[in-house]
Predict the structure.
Amino acid sequence: MASSLLSLIFITLSFFISSSSSSSQTLVLPLTHSLSKSQLTKNTHHLLKTSSLRSTKRHHHHKHNHHHLQNQKQRQISLPLSPGSDYILSFSFGSNPTKQQLMSLYMDTGSDLVWFPCSPFECILCEDKYDSNIPTTPFNISSAFHLPCNSPACSAAHSSLPTSDLCAISKCPLETIEVSDCSAFSCPSFYYAYGDGSLIARLYQDQLSLPLASSSLNLANFTFGCAHTTLGEPIGVAGFGQGVLSLPAQLAKHSPQLGNSFSYCLISHSFDVNRIHKPSPLILGRSSFKHEEEENKESKAVANGDVQSVEEFLYTPILHNPKHPYFYCVGLEAITVGKKRIPTMENLKRVNRQGNGGMVVDSGTTFTMLPTKLYEAIVTEFENTIGSVLTRANQVEEQTGLSPCYFYDNELVSLTKVPKLVLHFVGNSSVTLPRKNYFFKYMDGSDGKKKRNVGCLMLMNGGDEENDGPVATLGNIQQQGFEVVYDLVKRRVGFARRQCATLWDTLNQG
């Protein structure tokens, strides 16, 4: 039933637009989770292990994402790794209304480009990565415009190299390099790589259409990457990171009120597809302040018992990262476990001139990754709090990649012992996580004996601190049940507790 509902959402694409004043618009799009029942035929251990491994790989590629390969300036970035922990966004491409194609892509705040498979398309080692819930028909580029190598978009896709260097890469003659005129030469392919896959793509332009309730929003000359060959990646990516080629940046050129801020509210799923009855709202143009009409609507919702509370956003500044400019980096000052506040190291509070330090807010990583010393301090406090009450589940830790894990018998009694967890961001912004956001509980029966309740900490060891990029990643599991807003004008990220399914209903009633 849930799978059919998700499929229906994909097909119908129920996009909505609401307005609280003539100068402010919000566009609400459905984010559907890529978790499927076909994946749940495998045991929970396998799903958690896979997600933990992918989170680790993606975190390390956040650190090491610039490479010089085969004498060409190319960029290696981390991308969503495969279905199971990611969120899908769909729109239509093509300037011919009768031949537009629906494309379903991963929504990713950790990269800055929109790309997808194009016909003819070959995906190497992708046999087990296709999901029947996600349309994967390659795009027909017959109507698209292939960008030349002297276009600003081509420079943005490759690196910050001057246009003349890009022209040289594509074998542009010397006389044209001297006058920086390469219009007759194609933009060279660029290479993206990540934990267990990669792709080669070229840049094109075509129309992107966002169907609305009564009309459609068409973005002419939308720039995207077209991949004919990928390794382990059959589905494209809608990059929402900071960069001129990201979806918000290109949308801002057409409609600044829609592209200068966005937010999402991820519905909690606990790796159970049956819990996902509605899409998670992605809100383009989310204002950083409340209009009178919105306040009245939310007040009525509270009075009717539709939401438990309406919280204001707690903001933390976006830190500029000169080495990884498309990341949304923030500073983390401390983490409170139970009654103990654990200060973080200095390089987690700020980003230096070399682009090292800070925490990446990432919709494409499942579990939060922390530096070893901070992670170990948190584990120690968990052990001090519940280690003497609950039994350590060492075998489960090996099977899932999560640690520490504990067996418990009486849920009502045992889970009250799990300490609270608060993230203290720079800017006096303290975010208290719901227990289900950091302590995953399920029924374990992997050893063939009587099934037992087990709970695992969903924060992971991201490795030793290195002077090579961000030192931590905030994963999407920890973001569930919050509306996370990216205010690109005031350069800040905000968090507010929400009932995301209710928020979807409330926004669409407008």
